[in-house]
Amino acid sequence: SLKLCIRVLFHVNTTKKQIEMNPVYLREAKKLRPDQLGDQQ
After folding, report:
1. Which residue from 7, 26, 29, 40 has the highest number of Cβ atoms inside 10 Å of its Cβ?
2. Separation between Cα atoms, residue 23 and residue 20, nearest integer Å
């Protein structure tokens, strides 16, 4: 776990497909979801 972490959830209407969406994890929050890092490593 992280000492401090603020999670934000946005609901967005878009024409993009889910596969085109890219989650963003900053600094140490990357440790929370290593399966979602993709190109951020």
Report:
1. 29
2. 10
